[in-house]
Amino acid sequence: MLAYALLLSAALFVIGTLGVIVRRNAIIIFLSIELQLNAVNLAFVALSRYTGIEGQLFVFFVMTVAAAEAAVGLAIIISIFRHYKTVNVDRFNLLKW
Amino acid sequence: MTEILFVLFAVVALGGAFGVVLSRTPVASLLFMVATLASVAGIYVLFEAHFLAAIQVLVYAGAIMVLFLFVIMLLNLGHDYRADLKYGLWSLLGLVVAGLTAGVLGQAFWGASDTGFRGDGAAVAAALDAAVREQGAAGVIAEPLFTDYVVAFELMGLLLLVAIVAAVVLAKPKT
Asked: Quick one: pLDDT at residue B23?
């Protein structure tokens, strides 16, 4: 079952990557990044059956970092929305050449 | 039985992931994401990671997704029905990047599971199960967390404090 879990993890990661690239809504992009983090967590848990408890510990750490990242990222999105009145990433072009 | 449950959870997780990327409204994306997170928690249970499954449901599907829902409703994005998928060159680029990532990950994972982890897998799994029976599902994670990894644990607490302060400062309106 390990190989199938790893393949599922790879598939979830790829779908998350696709979401980051093809969506314009900043919140959906953020949700896709959470999907990628979750795919990595799945790989950690699956491998923890073969390498020891450290895999599950790292999932714990990843979840904490994801929670911190979600809080700060959503605060940034709120701050951007207050300025531009939209969360469409095509409008945030201040740093484009 | 385990295989049937795994296939069921995997199908729900993949369907939910596609729903996150493809659905038109942010709230629908969010609910698909909750379905994905819940079925990944189910897969955690199949891999005997009961504590992590509970944390996944409580923290991820509970707290973080509710935070996203709060922000969607606060910014009043719930009825922005215009699809915001990028077409043309961007979707082509997305498919190329996704294909390359899938190739690299699939090759690496398939090769690893074929060669690297078959040998002592059963012994490690048996030791883990024995530790869970002895210390409980939370204890088996807590014991290394508060001994070998205590510095990382304290740094995580510091990171959360920094994140709270940053979120409050960033989201506060300019006065």
From this structure: 87
ipTM, 2 decimals? 0.90
Least confident of A74-83, B18-27, B107-116: B107-116
Could you tell me how many residues make up chain A? 97
Look at A78 and B64 and tell me if their CB atoms are within 8 Å.
no
List alpha helices for chain B, DSSP H: 2-22, 26-46, 50-55, 65-74, 89-115, 121-135, 139-145, 150-171
Q: How many structural domains compose chain B?
A: 1
Looking at residue A2, its pLDDT comes to 79
Residue B27 forms contact with A (CB below 8 Å): no
Residue B125 lies in a domain: no
Find the residue in A nearest to B53 (Cα).
Answer: A45
Residue A23 bridge partners (DSSP): B85
What CATH number should be reported for the domain holding residue B74?
1.20.120.1200
* Domain architecture of chain A: domains with CATH: 2-85 (1.10.287.3510)
Q: Which of B47, B58, B133, B168 to mutate to test the interface with A (most CBs of A within 10 A)?
A: B47
Q: Which candidate, A19, A9, A70, A18, places its Cα nearest to that of A44?
A: A9
Query: What's the pLDDT score for residue B161?
Result: 95
Measure the CA–CA gap between B71 and B52, rounded to whole angstroms.
Answer: 26
Tell me which residue in A56, A60, A75 faces B170 most closely, judged by beta carbons: A75
Half-sphere exposure of A24 (CA within 13 A, CB side): 19
Q: Which domain holds residue B10?
A: 1-85
